[in-house]
Amino acid sequence: MRSYEPRGEDEAAEIVRDAAGRAERLRLIGGDTKAAIGRPPHDEATLSARGLSGITLYEPAEMVVGARAGTPLAEVRDLLAGRGQMLPFEPVDHRALLGSSGEPTIGAVAAINNSGPRRINAGAARDSLIGVRFVNGRGEVIKSGGRVMKNVTGLDLVKLMAGSWGTLGFLTEVIFKVLPVQERVLTLVLEGLDDARAVEALCAALGSPFELTGAAHLPAGIADARALTLMRIEGFSASLDYRAGEIRRLLKRFGPVTLVEGEAAGTLWTAVRDASFFAGSGEAVWRLSTAPTHGPAVAAAVGRNVSARWFYDWGGGLIWVATDVGEDAGASAIRAVLRPIGGHATLLRAPEPVRAVVPVFEPMAEPLMRVSQGLKTAHDPAGIFNPGRMYAGI
């Protein structure tokens, strides 16, 4: 298979123009750590962002960082950490779950809207993404957004590119707003709650004024013999002591709350972020999104229909589910449960034959599918970028 690795934006644009002229289908990659997500590839060549690397903008006082799309995510994190700053949305590292290697890139963070546990407090990656440069399917270089947040009139290409999985354009540069690293991080833990009581406790804490930056529940057997309900708060030490005391009082009816910090807590939140509890298991893995209050009922209903285990993030609104692979990895049962209450399911890990027959991303209603097809045609008229990765024909 042919492989392209441009060293500059103009070279990337020329490659795309030539490929479009030949209708050569391209698989867009960065560190190639997430190749196993999505429908099986239908490409004839790869177009890699690895040669587009380096920080292009960093203004600590303005809390803005920009980098070429192929820049390793670790390089951006290290730069920010040196000035006491961080990406707000805690991007997931999929390598353990998918058994992949390579280095995650900052462009891929934007391309898949990669957001972890802190999303409940800081928003998703797309909420911090303020500028992009990309090459469209005609080989034209497009710039959208810039260095500051601002209102947008018309089609917001920055937000459109976030979560498009490389189907609309080849990202060459991204710009994010960043936040200060907090002085102290503290995790409050309730033990032994069933799913419904745990989510009730998480919702009570999230509805308080004490600003949780993480809210997860691990049923018994996921990380420990006992169920663990985790709540994370961050900030100045004096503020944390007060907030922890108030949360303890608020949740008194749910049982004793213990406090954990340091490496032990950090390791636990990393496992929640990366769903590494399911790494190497051989099961299919789903991400289900629904209203937090529906989370326990959704998980229980899924568990009655397929062999499954699960845990919760985002206060119960995100359910990571591991199922037996079978013929459809539990797709029929999962989507039947979600359909009447709202929500969506993404098949994050499964063998290629399953991903060939099961909709990996939540099926769209016909009107939305027509809009998506129209956007694909407008930005990639020859259909050369990641064809069919999200949906057949897009």
TrEMBL record:
What region holds the FAD-binding PCMH-type domain?
A: 1-181
UniProt keyword annotation of Flavoprotein present: yes
What keywords is this UniProt entry annotated with? Answer: FAD, Flavoprotein
What Pfam families does the entry give? Answer: FAD_binding_4
Taxonomically, which superkingdom? Bacteria
InterPro entries documented for this protein = FAD-bd_PCMH, FAD-bd_PCMH-like_sf, FAD-bd_PCMH_sub2, FAD-linked_Oxase-like_C, Oxid_FAD_bind_N
Supply one GO molecular-function term: catalytic activity
**The keyword DNA-binding is annotated on this UniProt entry:** no
UniProt protein name: 2-hydroxy-acid oxidase
Biological source species = Methylobacterium durans
